[in-house]
Amino acid sequence: MEAKRLHSSKEKKIKRREVLGKKKAIDEAIKAASSVKDHLASFLPFRHYDRNGLSVYLESGSGDHLSSPMKQYIQNLLKVNMEGPYGSEWRTEEKVKRREMVAPEARYIFVREAPKTSVDDMSSTMEGIATCTNWVGDGNPVVGFVQYRFIVEEDIPVVYVYELQLEHCVQRKGLGKFLMQLIELIARKNRMGAVMLTVQKANLSAMNFYTSKLRYMISSTSPSRVEPLIGVEKSYEILCKAFDEEAKAKLEENNYIGDG
């Protein structure tokens, strides 16, 4: 009996060391990923996007280093794109987003119009600025951004996309898919197990974009999966794309996209 107790105690100690070791590894992965100042540096081909009549380039940023014009721009674009899907919840949600926007752990990829060289290009650019963007800061016009963080969900290190916002004039040109592919590469490069994000149910085009075009799944952490009877009343779903078996088991288990 004594030997059995000793064996059980030893097993518990080993298991505890394994759990602590795994937690340490996850914390170190999050810390390492968050300390990288420019995640684009590892993906030079993704710095520019020249397709479907668009010519833009990307640059990195962080929440605690946003200029005043950039803060105002983010707030304006969020209001234009999200006030409709959020409906009556927008006034409260806007305050939350303003806090999230400037958090030190918030990472950004900004999309700027590429500088034009010819007279025709410059004329086209000026017309685009007048109708497409409300950018009033320094540098080339900003026409969209991605905001993301490295966090832990269900003991899995993940990239959580807080915002993917594009101006109307650059939508439906493949840019959103391009940016999400980049985010997935950043996640894999930094040893994250998945990419996750939240989508308003009312935002049907966004839901279709992520689930149909990009093959994201409704996560097992989404309200509709955790408590279906309560979740049906919630205005959002949590989506994910897992990269390994452990992440899939914890974040995509018993998964399905609604049956209509």
Q: How would you name the CATH homologous superfamily of the largest domain?
A: Gcn5-related N-acetyltransferase (GNAT)
Shape: globular
Roughly what fraction of the amino acids lie in strands?
Answer: 15-25%
Q: How many domains make up the coordinates?
A: 2
CATH architecture type of the largest domain: 3-Layer(aba) Sandwich
**Structure classification:** alpha+beta
Contiguous runs where pLDDT drops below 50 for at least 5 residues: 122-130, 255-260
C-alpha-based Rg, rounded:
21 Å
Q: Biggest sheet, in brief? A: 8 strands, mixed
Helical fraction: 40-55%
Distance between the termini: 58 Å
CATH class term of the largest domain: Alpha Beta
Overall pLDDT metric: 89
Strand order within the widest beta sheet: 1-2-3-4-5-6-8-7
Query: Which fold name is given in CATH as the topology of the largest domain?
Result: Aminopeptidase
* Strand count: 8
**What order do the SSEs take from the amino end to the carboxyl end, as H and E?**
HEEHHEHEEHEHEHHEH
Given the structure, what is the number of helices?
A: 9
Secondary-structure blueprint of this entry?
Blueprint lengths: L1 H34 L12 E4 L2 E9 L5 H19 L3 H12 L5 E7 L5 H14 L9 E12 L2 E11 L8 H15 L4 E7 L3 H10 L3 E2 L4 H4 L1 H4 L4 E7 L2 H7 L9
Parallel strand pairs: 5-6
Antiparallel strand pairs: 1-2, 2-3, 3-4, 4-5, 6-8, 7-8
Helix pairs in contact: 2-3
Descriptive account of the structure:
This protein has about 260 residues and is α+β, with helices and mostly antiparallel strands. It has two domains: about 1-35; about 35-250, Aminopeptidase (3-Layer(aba) Sandwich), CATH 3.40.630.30. It has nine helices and eight strands. The protein has helices at about 1-35, 70-85, 90-100, 120-130, 175-190, 205-215, 225, 230, 245-250; strands spanning about 50, 55-60, 105-115, 140-155, 155-165, 195-200, 215-220, 235-240. Strands 1-2-3-4-5-6-8-7 form an eight-stranded mixed sheet, with helices on both faces. Helix 5 links the parallel strand 5 and strand 6. The chain is globular, with a radius of gyration of 21 Å. Mean pLDDT is about 90; it is low at about 120-130 and about 255-260.
